[in-house]
Structure formats: structure tokens, C-alpha cells
Records
---
Amino acid sequence: MPIDLRSDTVTLPTPEMRQAMFEAEVGDDVYGEDPTVNRLEAMAAQRMGKEAAVLVASGTMGNLVSGLTHCQRGDEAIIGSKSHMLMYEVASLAAFGGVQMRPIANDERGMIDPDQVEAAMRPVNIHQPRTAMVAVENTHNRCSGGVLDSEDVGALAEAAHRHGAKFHIDGARIFNAAVALGIPPSELARPADTITFCLSKGLSCPVGSVVCGSKETIEGVRRHRKMVGGGMRQAGVIAAAGIIALDTMVDRLAEDHENAKRLALGLATLPGIHLNATAIQTNIVIFAVKDRSAESFVEALQSRGVLAGVAERGKVRLVTHYGVTAEDVDQALNAVEAVARGQARGRE
């Protein structure tokens, strides 16, 4: 079997999750009658320090229905220039909500400058869209899993709220951020009007994400979930895995972070590979390759039994996760070294 480092979405459910899914008590969730879904939503809200939560099919759906709840057609949302919402969600908020996306440059760890957010806020003017939402990603996918702390998110929320805009956190990997900082996720979620998190990434569930917020806001989110076709019926078979994940899979994320650091430190010693190993905080390692395309590098790795992804032009992404051991990391490093040194010999 290859060592699959393409993403933490490739995680498989644990045996305990599979058993819980098999035995799940279910009902019709659209009627609010699935007890397992209700339990998961209550747990999620409590973990994020919010009044309510709603289970959705994916993080992309969670971001979409949050944006639809906060924004009206013709509004504008301020987001990061490298954000998942801008790069990987098929312009869904623009397509379904008629919402214009206004990107602000992300720094190396995924932060957007609050002063630039302030400057981008639209004045009240019939010629301009209303700035209805500011969204930030934590951890940041395209910024090597960079972490924003409570001061960072607080400053962005303050800038948004001062101008009457809502503040949304795409917290697909918010538990990774919390574990890296050694704080509860509720501290990072506190200033957010909505926050999403994924069950299907590092928490290893087969499917699902959760949106958390106030009761009133989540009522709107639930309505928009229905609107985009996300009303699920006996969804307890999904939620059961999420309950196990919240109970058993959060603390172990630290293992993924250690493996990512081990990987990054090894990569930094290899020829033709460029990254700041000390900046790796969580489970995503992105490195630049010299004198060849990232696609050809990934293809060469695959031939040596390691699956990797292309982050962007000239950059390769490796993600540690449940099921990847320290021994797997060492084997992956051997494969990367063989590819890198082979390329270096080819230039001699």
C-alpha cells in the first residue's frame, strides 16, 4: 500500500466509529427527530462555545450556507487571497448568492491584515456593494497549515463588527489550531458569528462538517442548508462517527503535528527543496521544488510508493494524518530524497 500524504481527507474511520455507525439510533433529521444528530450538534456547539450547531455534508457546504445567511445578493465578502473559499469552492457564494468576493493578501501563516480589512470596508454608497462578511481560515490550507491565535481572530472580528459586517471562520481544521496552541477551540471561535469545522479531515470521519453559531443564526443556516439540497434524513449514521471523533480523535492530532515537523526537518536537508521547516505548526507541509514542475515531482514520488499533492505552481503538499506513522514519515523522506537527489545528479 502506498503512503498516502495527499490530504487528511483520505483518513479512514476507526473501528469504534464503524461500530457506532452500525448501531446508531436514527430518525428524520429534517424534522429534528434524529437523536444522534441532535447529540452531535449539541456537542459541537458546546465545544465551540456557541448556542447551536447544524450538521452539513461538507466544509464547502458549511462555508456556503454561512455566507448565504450573512450576505444578501449584491453584497461583498472580504476573504483571504489564498483562502479555500476563493480557491477551491467553485465560486459557490457568487454563483448561488450573488455575493462578490474581495480578496486581501494572506501572509505566510494565513493571516490577513486588519488594517487592510478596515481599508477595504465599503462606505454607505448606492454605487458600491455592502460589506456584509469577513471570513478567515484557521488553520490555513495553502499556508502550510498556519495557525491564527485568539488575538489574530479577535482583531479581524473587531474590524468586521465595527463596520456592521459578520465574521466567519472557516475552521475546517480548527481543532488542529487549538491543539497547536494548547487552548480550547472555543477561545478561537469566541468572536465568530459562525464557524465551520470538518469531521472528515484530521478527525477521521467518513463524511460531514458542522456549522456553529447563535440559535437565530443557525436557524438561518439550517434554512439555507435545505435550500441547497442539504436536508438529510436518517443522518445519525453519519453523526455517530462525529460523536466518536469529538470524544477520541482531537488530542491525537498532536501526533500528526509531530510527524509533520519530523517530515519538514528532513525535507529541509535535501537538495532542490525549499521550505521553512521551523514554521510548520500543524499537519500540512508545503515545499518548493527547483528546476522541475511540482507535477513531475509528485509523479516520481508516486512511482516510489508515496502519494503527494500539488499545492500550487512549483510547490508540493504533504499532509500527515491518522494512519500515518513516524515510520511512514521516514519512508516518505527516503522516497523524496531519492527523487530530489536524482534530479540533482541530472543537473550535474
Note: The domain at 12-248 is CATH 3.40.640.10 (Aspartate Aminotransferase; domain 2).
---
Amino acid sequence: MSPRRRPVRSPRASEAPKGDSDRQKPTGTVSNPVPSGRVLRASSTRIPADWLDAFLVGLLEISIVDGEDHAAQALVDLVARVLPEVAVSVTYLYPDPSSSARNLGAGAGRRNAIALSPGMLPRPVTYVPTRQFPAWRHKRAFPVPSPEHAASMHLASDDAGLDGEGALAQFGHRASQALGALLVAARRHRMQRVALRSLDDMAVNLAHTEKLASLGQLAAGVVHELNNPLTAILAYADFLKRRATKEDELERLGRIHDSATRMLRVTRDLMMYARPPSEAKSQVSIEAIIDQALAFCEHVVAAANARVERTCAPQIPEIVARPQELVHVFVNLFTNACHALPPRGGRLGIVTGLTPDGGVEVRVDDNGCGIDEDSLEQIFVPFFTTKAEGKGTGLGLSIVRNIVVAHGGEIVAESQPQPSTAEPSAEDPPTVTAFILRFPRR
């Protein structure tokens, strides 16, 4: 006769299996309790399913294309909808050093995260007034696991379960994890948009630079074609001068000869200036370089009604350099200085001296409009320009710095912008912008 078996009795919902007594012990009254009849088997399932369902559906609707602010605020609204009796806020710090902390808050019945959370609404405050949500008994901060943001999520409730590890606390942990992922995704999307926009700007600038290069080639061809007739003019002027007998005729022919000679010299210098930098370094005089650059910029200086003031220290040593490259440096600096002068004209200062270690220092300054502080930090960046569209490529000062550095030197810029409301005076204002170039000893 086989032994009788005892019937298996199903555990009641109120009974907890052995080993799970601590896990099933309630930590407080949850505002939205778990539906009756649901068995909680592990900590990962203690959050009510309706909370998780609403949270996941809303999370999929949050967009990251508008940046961290929009994503964080949307998540605050979502948590406020899932937990209508809980106050919630998010605090995070932008990764950029120049930005400041942002605070977003929302809560019961508030769908706009910009509005005051329920804990801040006008109502009797019987608790600590220095807290973010002073009208709630319990408050907890959940750190956001984001490697790129210093962030935290704050929940406030009258439910004591918020202080333990109940459903409300676990939901806070889940929401903070989701916030971290949203912030990282939104920031990376924003950085990618900035990078793409920079690439678009660079493509436009490159196209403009290519157009200028083509224009330069055409101009070089025109200059080459001018050399032949200019040579003929010089030859005929010399021939007529030898046959002329009257003083007035000799004077007129002399003016023709001098003007043609000057034009021919300019065209030849331009051809040499446009030639690729294949020349070798040699010992050159910085004063001779400045003289040639001023000759190139003569029409620019005249158009700007600029007054050139030169100061040269005695016994300036020669430097080892490629002459045409240094001419390009000073042509660019002189042209920029003249463009910055007011319409009535101004001063272009050129001071040549010695560095403490015996090198050569050149200071090019003007009393024009100046450069603001933000632009001063970027003037040597390729394609950055403070001129109006179509007036500059943003490559001039970048090339200048590269040439100076290639010669073992350095260049620094100083500026004190003039206020736009300043009234013009009869006297020249003091020096506003200065470029200091230093070259080593030969």
C-alpha cells in the first residue's frame, strides 16, 4: 500500500516565500500601488507595469534633435505624467566650460516643465524652507550616469517609500538612467550638427578661394601681356627724348618714361610675388622687405588716406628668410591696417627694433576700429574673418602666421576696440591694434 501524499497548497498572496521576507517587506505607501493579485518576484519587477508601460511609450517619443534642454525637459514632463503625485526636477551642467547650470522642474498636473513644480506652488510650508520642494515630506536625488554631464534627477513625495528601495525609488533610478542616455545622445547630435555646419562653411570658403585663385591666374596673364607694350612705350620714349629739343617736350617725355618704368616695375614685382615659394632662404634686411611691401601697398595707403610713421632702431641685423614670403606677410598686415582706418584717415605705424635675445622685432599698428576680444582669439584661424561677406577670405592672417612660424618666429596680436558710439575728433586716437612679429637672429 503506497503512502498517502499530502495535497500541495498554493501560497496565499499575503504569504512570502522563505528568503524573500525582506524583499517583500513594504517600505511605505506608494501613491500608485501595485494592482492586487500581482506577485512581485524580484527587485527588477517591483515597479508597476503600468508605470513602465507609460514611461517606455513616452520615452520613445522624446526627440534629441533640439538639444539637451529639450530632451531633459521632455523627460521631466514624462515622469510628471507617470507619477502625477510626485514632484520632479532635473539639474545638469553643460559640458562646455562657458555654460552654466540648467534647472528644469515639473510635477503634479503641470505639463509645462518651465512652470513651478507642485512643491514650489503657493501653499503653507511646514517643512524646511531651504529645500527645493519644501512642501513635500521626502525628497531624494538620483545621480545620472552620464560621462559627459554632471546631472541629477530629484523626486519629492509624501510617500516614505521614496527613502527606501521601493517601487518609487526604483522608478527614479530607471528614469535617471534614461536621462543620462538622452543627454549623451542629444549632445552628440548637437556636436555632429555643428561639425556638419562647419564643413558646409568650409566648402563655401574653399569654393571662394578657388575662384580667387583663378582670378589671380587671370591677373597674372594680364600682367604678362602688359609687359610688352610697356617695354615698347619705354623704348619709344627714350627714342623721342633723344630727338626732342624743347624743354617742355623733354619734360613730358620724361614723365611718360618715368610712369611707364614704374608700371613695368610693379608688373614685374607682381609676377615675382605671385610665383610659388620655391626660393631658398638668404640673408635679408627687414627694412628692405618693408620698403618693398609699402611699394605694393602704395595705392591702398593712398585710398585709406593713411599716414605712414616709421621708426627704425640703429644697427638692425639681417635675418635668414625667403624675401617674397616676408613681403607677403607685411603686405597683408599693411592692407588690413588700412582697411581698419576710419574714412577720414588715420595712422599706420611701423616700428623696427631688437628683441631681448638679439633678434628682430617689427611692430605694425594702427588707430582704426580695433578687434573685439572674441574675434581676437580667432583671427589666426583659417577662414575666420571680421570683414563683410565678399570682402575677405579669412586666410590672410592664417597664412601670415604659418610663414612667420616657418621662419622660426612668432606673431602676436593686441587690440583695444574703439566704442562704436565714439564721436570723431580732430586728434588721432591712440594705437588700437598692433601685430608684433619676432624673428630669431641669423
Note: Confidence is low (pLDDT under 50) at residues 1-45, 97-103, 105-129.
